[in-house]
Design a protein that fits this description.
- The chain has 101 residues and is mostly beta strands.
- It has a single domain, classed as SH3 type barrels (Roll), CATH 2.30.30.140.
- Helices cover 14% and strands 36% of the residues.
- It is built from 1 helix and 5 strands, in the order βββββα.
- The protein has a 5-stranded antiparallel beta sheet.
- A hairpin with a 2-residue loop joins β4 and β5.
- The longest helix is centred in the middle third of the chain and has 14 residues.
- The C terminus is likely disordered.
């Protein structure tokens, strides 16, 4: 199953003329391409799929998505053991295809 996972934008920057971000997924930080969500800024929550931010959402919606995924027991796709999911939502960032963080 392919999932779009919410994460919090921690930092934005440009790399090779592409809008990028460091995103926090519950303590795991990944690089994410922001080309599909150019208005995303630090503090925003974004839905991320395969390293691309697809949509900006609010913190309440991000928490609801994580709550639903916990209920569905589908969070193992977030690299089991890497992400501690506290009772309150915390964010993580996505890797590039080369596995860089």
């Amino acid at each position: 199953m392919c999932l779009g996972i919410p994460g919090e934008v921690i930092e934005t920057y440009t790399e090779h003329d592409m809008s990028m971000a460091k995103v926090d997924f519950g303590g795991v930080y990944k690089r994410v391409c922001l080309q599909h969500t150019p208005d995303a800024k630090v503090g925003d929550f974004v839905i991320v799929h395969v390293g691309f931010s697809l949509q900006v959402i609010d913190a309440i919606e991000a928490e609801q998505v994580f709550r639903f995924l916990r209920q569905m027991d589908d969070l193992q796709e977030l690299h089991a053991g890497e992400i501690a999911l506290p009772g309150h939502f915390a964010a993580v960032t996505c890797e590039s295809r080369e596995g860089e963080t």
